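Quick one - first record:
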Amino acid sequence: MEKIPESVQKVLGHYIKKCNEELPGLLAGLYLHGSIAIDGYIDGESDVDFVALTSRELTDKDISVLKGIHVNLAETCKNPQLDGIYVQSSNLAAEGFFYNEGTFGKAVHNIPVTWWLLKNKGITLLGPAINELPLHETTEDLTEYVRKNMNDYWATRISAMEQKVDQLIHYPVEQIEAEMEWTVLGLLRQFYTLKEKDIISKIAAGEYGLRELGPKWHGLIQEAIHIRKGRPERSFSTNEDRVNTMIQFAKGLIESCNKLQLKSEVKLENYQIAHLKQLTDYELTESQLIYTSHPSNALEVCETDKGRYPIVILSNGVPAGFFVLYQGEELVEYTENPNAILLRAYSVALPFQGQGIAYSSLELLPGFVRENFPQVNEVVLAVNLRNEAAQRVYLRSGFEDSGKRVMGRMGEQFVYRLKVKGEKNS
C-alpha cells in the first residue's frame, strides 16, 4: 500500500466497506491499474482505475446497489473518482460491467492495455495474487492494439482537427490547451509503448519525447507537460500556433510510429548449427514456458526423431523465434489427414515480442511449407484452452478451429488447422 496516496486509500476503504456491508461475499478480488500502477497519479486530477472480480454473475439488484455505492462515493468524496470494471472471477473474458464518470453499463472488456498493465504492474488489494489470475495478454497483443488505435482513433481525430482549423483557433484557450495535453501526451505514450514495449504515465511520456525527438517539438511537448502539471509557463502565444503545431506534430509522430513496424524483415529458415548459441540463450517467461518448449529442449528431441524439422524465425537475419514441423506417428492424434503436418514448440523470443514477428512468420508459413514439403496440404497445431493470447495470434493468422480436442501436458487443447494451397495440392 506504500505507493497508494492516503486520499486514495480513504476512498478505497469506504468502497470496500460499503461493498462488504451491502453485498457480502460479492468481491472475490480487487486490483488497481492505471496511473497509480505506473507512478503517474496526480492528486486532484487522476482517477483511480480498478478491476473487481465478482464471485457470481451480477443480478439486477447487485447492479443497483453497486451503482448506488459509486454515486454515493462520488458525492461524498469529490476526488479521486473510482472508474473500473466488474468481471466474474470464473471467466474474465465474459461480458461484465463498468462504472465510469457516473455511468454504469454492460460490456465485454477486451482492451489489451488494461489486462497487460494489470498483469505486469497491477496492485492487489483483495483476492488472489495477480500472478495467479488467468491473464495471457502479451507485449505483442499490447503493441498491436496500440498501432491499431494510433491509425484508427488518433489518425481520424487529427484529420478532423485539420478540417476545422479555422474554427478551432477561435475556441477558448483553456479548451485548446486541454486538447493539446490530451493529444501530445497521449500520442507520446503510444510512441513510448511501440519503442520500449512498456507503458508509462503522460508526464513521463512527455519527458521521453523531449529526449527522443528533435528540438522542433520541444516547446509543444514542454507546454503539454506544464498543462498536465497545472503550471502557468507557456511556449505559444496564440491558438493558431498551438493548433497548427499540434497537428503537424501528431501527423509526423504517427508516420514515424508506422515506420517502426516496417523495420523488421522476417524470414523462415531451416535450423542450422550456426543458430545454436542464440537458441540456447533464447529468452521466454516462465508463464510462456508453461505452454511451449524452450528451443534448446525441442532441438534435443529433434536429434533423435527424424520426423521433426526445426525451423528458425529470423528478424533482420537474427534468430527471433522457433518452431518444429512434425510428421510421424503422433500426427493421427491431431488429424485424419495423412498429408498434414503438425506445428509444435512455436514461440517468439522475449526481446522480439511486440514487433509483429509472430504474425509475419505465420503469414510466411504456407509458402514455406509448400516449398519444403510439397506433399503437405494442411498445417495443424494444438493450443491450450487457457492460452487465449496464442489462440488470438493463430486465428488472426488464418488458422481455424477443427473442432477436435486433445489432451496435452497442461490439459485440454484445441486443434487448429490451416489449409496450404498450391498447384501440387489444390
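second record:
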Amino acid sequence: MTRSTVKRTFTYRFYPTDAQAAELSRTFGWVRLVCNRALDLGTRAWFTEQRRGNHTESSAALTAWKKDPDLALLNEVSSVPLQQALRHLQAAFRAFFSKRAQYPRFKSKKTSRAAAECTRSGVTHRHGALFLATMAQPLDIVWSQPLPADAQPTTATVSQDGAERWGVSMRCEDTPRPAPASDRAVRVAAGPTCLAVLSTGEKIANPKHEFRDRARLAKAQRELSRTQKGSNTRAKARRRVARMHTRITDRRRDFLRKLSTRLLCGNQVVVIEDLRVRSLVNNHKLARAVSGTAWSELRSMLEYKCAWRGRELVAIDRFFPSSTTCSTRGAPRKTIPLNVRTWTCDCGVTHDRDVNAAINIKTAGLAASVGAPLCDAAELTKQHRAGGAGAGVRPQRESSRTGQSARQQTQRAAAGLSSR
C-alpha cells in the first residue's frame, strides 16, 4: 500500500511575554476590524448593486485603509494575518452563494474567537523554535508532541480562548504509518443510556463530564450574573466560568480521542450510524444528554483516523431498522417504544435493544463494505449470510446532512485505501 501525504494540525500551548501578548492582542483587534470593514463592503456591493465582491477589491481597500491617518496603526502589525482574514471572508462568501452556509457575520470582541493566521511568509520554524513576523523572540511553546521530521509549517494560527490560554496551531505535511491489517470488524452504536454500544456486547458508559461540574458551573454563572458590567469583578467571574467550560471540553475531547484510537487498533472495518444529531437535539428531554456525548465529534475523529491508518469506515443509513430486527433470524418487528430496552422475538430469543442493534448494523456494514447497497434489515441480513449481498435491493437514501449516500461517504473516507 502506498503511503499518502496528508495535512495534519499540531496544537500547542505557549506563554508569551508581556510585549508579545500586547502585540498579539493588537493583531487580533486589527484582524477583527479589517474583516468587519471588508464584510461591510461586500454587503453593500451585494444589496445595492447585486454584485459579488472579490479578494482583489478587498485587498485594494486594505491598502487604502493603511493610508488613512485614523487607521495608521494598521502598518504596525504584520500584513499576513490581515490578508488571511480577507481570504477567509471570501471563502465564507463563496460558501454562502453556493448555499452551503449562512451569510457571514460581523466579528465581536466579546463573542468572536480571538485568532490570527500566518502563512509560511509570516512564520519561521528553525531549531525547534517558532518565530512570528515582527517578533524578535520566539514563542515559549510547550512541545507536548514532536513535529514530523523536517516539517515546515505551512500555516500557524495563534489564538486565545475565553480562559485566556494562548495556543498555536501549526499545519504541516505528514505521512502517517498505516496500522497492521486485521480481519476484525466492530460496529459503534449510539445509545441514550450510554455513550456507545459495540457489536461485541460492550457498553461504553457516558463519562458525563458536564454533569460532574454542573453544580459548580451553575454557581459560577449565578455569581457572574450578579456582578456589575464593566467591573474587574465581572471580568474575574467571566474567566472563572470560561475555565470551567474549557475543562469540560478538554476532558470530553481527550476521552473521545482515546476511544476512537482504541476502536481502530484491532478492527479493519468500523460501522457507524448516519445520525442527524441536530434532529435529536430538538427533543428537549434528550437534548442535554445528546449534546454532552459529542457523537458528531467522535464520527469526525473516526473519519480522519481511518484514512490515516488504512481502515474502512462504513456509515449506515439512519432509517435502517436495527433495533426492531431480530439478529438471530433477521425478522423485522413493529416499532418498539424507546423506553423498552429488552424485548423477546417470536422465535423465543430475548434481545438487549442496544446490543441487538449493534449486531444487525455490523452485519449490514460488512455487506455494504463489499459493495452491497443498503436494503431493509431482513433482506440484507439474509443476503449477507448467504454470501450474495447486493442483488435486488432498493437504492440507498441520500444523506440529509452531506447530500451523499452512506456508500459514497464510505468511498470518500477510504479513498486510496484497500477494502478488507
